[in-house]
Specification:
Structural class of chain A: mainly beta
Helix content of chain A: under 10%
Radius of gyration of chain A: 13 Å
Radius of gyration of chain B: 13 Å
Largest sheet of chain B: 6 strands, mixed
Order of helices and strands of chain B: EEEEEEEEEE
Strand content of chain A: over 45%
Number of helices of chain A: 0
Number of strands of chain A: 9
Oligomer: heterodimer
Shape of chain B: globular
Distance between the termini of chain B: 40 Å
Strand order of the largest sheet of chain B: 2-10-9-4-5-6
Number of strands of chain B: 10
Distance between the termini of chain A: 28 Å
Helix content of chain B: under 10%
Amino acid sequence: QSVLTQPPSASGTPGQRVTISCSGSTSNIGTNYVYWYHQLPGTAPKLLISRDNQRPSGVPDRFSGSKSGTSASLAISGLRSEDEADYYCAAWDDSLSGPVFGGGTKVTVL
Amino acid sequence: EVQLVESGGGLVQPGGSLRLSCSASGFAFRNFAMHWVRQAPGRGLECVSGINNNGGSTYYADSVKGRVTISRDNSKNTLYLQMSGLRAEDTAVYYCVKDLGYNPSTWFDPWGQGTLVTVSS
C-alpha cells in the first residue's frame, strides 16, 4: 500500500488529453513539493515534473503538473504513442522523514 | 555528462548479505545527496535509503531499517548500500539516484541503470 494514491491505469487515443491524479496528505503533498517521474518499458525512471509544476530542460510542454491541497495531477496533452509508460508521483513525507512514491499509473495509448 | 553505474547485485540466499556500489562521475559528487531506490519485479518504486552530501544524515525506509546501511566515500566518488538479513521481498532492481542539493529531497535526477538483487534459495 503506497503512501500516495494513484489510479493503476489511464488511457487515451492519440491527440487526447490524459490526466493522472495523486492523492496524499498534509504530511506530504500538503506541505512539500510534488515530483513526477516516467518510466518507459525496460528503462530507468526519469524526472518529468519537479516542484509541483516545473518542467526540466528537454521535457515537452505537453506535460504539465498542478497541485491543490493534498492532491496533485499530471496532465498529458496531445497524447502520443511514445507516451506509453508508467508514471509515478513522489513527495517528501515529514512524518516518515523520507520520500514516498505513488503506486504508479500505466498509461496506454489506444 | 553525469553517470551513475551500479554494481554488486546478484543472487543471494535468504538471510545473506550483499554490498551494492554506485560509481559516480561527471559532477562534484561531494556536493550532492544520493539515494537508493528499488523496484521489485512488476511493481512500483520504493525509496530504500538516502544520504546527505557529507554522510552526516541518512534516512531509511521502514521495510529495511536495521538491515541496511547507506554510506559514501567522497574521495572515491562512490555510494554504497550494505544489506544484511536479506529476504525474498528484497528482490528488486536497485537504482542509484542523484539529488539536486546537499540534503535529501524528492528530486531524483538522474538515475543509474540499476543492479538486480535476487534473494532466493
